[in-house]
Request: fold
Amino acid sequence: MLQIVGQAVLRTVGELGDFTAFTARSFAAIPTTRRLMRRTIRAVYEQGVRCLPVILIVGGFTGLVLGLQGYYVLARFGSEGLLGTLVSLTLTRELAPVLAALMIVGQAGSALAAELGIQRNSEQIDALETMGIDHHGYLITPRLLASLLVFPIMTSFFTLIGLVGGWASGSLLLSLQGGVYWSSVFRAVDPADVRECLIKAVIFGLLTIAICAHNGFNAHRRRGATGARAVGASTTRAVVLSSIVVLATDYLITSMLV
Amino acid sequence: MSDVPPLFLDVRGVRKVFDGVAVLESVDLAVPRGSIVTVLGKSGTGKSVFLKCLAGILRPEAGHIVFDGHELDAANADARAEFRRRCSYLFQSNALFDSLTALENVGLPLEQTTRLRDREVRERARAALARLELEKFADHYPSQMSGGMQKRLALARAIVTRPEIVLFDEPTAGLDPVRRNAVFEMIVRYQREFGFTAVVVTHDVPEALAASDAVALLDAGRMHFAGTPAAFAASDDPTVRTFRDSTADLTATVAALRSGHPSSSAT
Reply:
């Protein structure tokens, strides 16, 4: 039993070390990677533009539901006027960074893990090595840099469309005046809340894209699976691990910043 | 004083182990500059592993690889980088980037490893495509091209950096005899045109004997034979004969089976 636990701990520590070295090596490749800006812009398109529709849809419905639920709860205490406060703080502090990160992981992160896994399987990554191209700089670095930009922007969009959703629920579908809703929004949100929201977004972006890239890149090292099955397993693991890390990190950051 | 030119690539005692099993026990290979050297061997004897050890994709557990007088090992990063700059590798699967067009695939090594401007990269990539008669397919993706065209595209990418040595991993795998001939003809033609040194790994004996300056037979983790194609063709060594004369042996075996005397089949 002790041996099993010990092996699991050693394996986890080894994987953490490997992941840290992988991420550090990707950032270390920044000065030597050619045409990095061009590839980063492409990664911004993959992570940002392609994910924007799902961010807007999920953000809108999240705001609608928050507005609906919040209105009836607050109405019990005669405090419907605080609906804007409830929706804005819930979105800014927690839901927007977390849900936006999960949506981007589901769409762009999984695609990244699968793409790198297939590139590994079809020897495209080995080909880069034989051509003298730093595969970290070419494949990973642009994605990590893009995540630092895309996640805060997507989170901001999520928050804005969520606020509109809350307004639509409270003011269009129910009987709250729009002015009351928006004034409570502006009164409730501090710069510190926005800062917390963006810090979370940046950290979630870096961690999740690095996890997805690491899993796809090392698809060939998966035990008990090879070929297409290894790519599938790595993609699944990337998404599950990223989702767990988002929620765990959210708790840690919140407990530090509250 | 010896007038023998120094070897361009000198491999001695390369050993590679996977999960405790030695795929390569102790492999030697001598490659003179400007020659085509073919490594023959049955499937699963470690030919591709050997080539990947040469390219630095796999690290051998033991042995020496000396390229143009410089030893390539983990401690000598500069020599390894220099080797990569002067070497190209043609993968068995071609390893083309399926999300890039033919032009982008060929331009990739120039774009990422040189300081050439975009226009120069495109011009040189187009010239490489033209040499391999692929200029009309510059905007096609690899998936839109036939197997033979993909092979030529991979070769265009391999030669665009003007390498001094090209490693070919099973360049004719999965091709019919006519296309196999065409691939070897292509290797010889471009080797003469560009003057690179070629190391080819294959199990196509007739084509290898016709196209190579030297052949080696990898068997049981060692180079069992190394010499000229004529010496290989004339060798009485049982291992060489088994590999070289496998078609004749099959014909004899089938004839014996059909005549009802399986015991007289060739060994």
About this structure: The two ends of chain A are 40 Å apart (CA to CA). The longest helix of chain A spans residues 83-121. Residues 22 and 238 of chain A are 15 Å apart (CA to CA). Chain A has a mean pLDDT of 94.
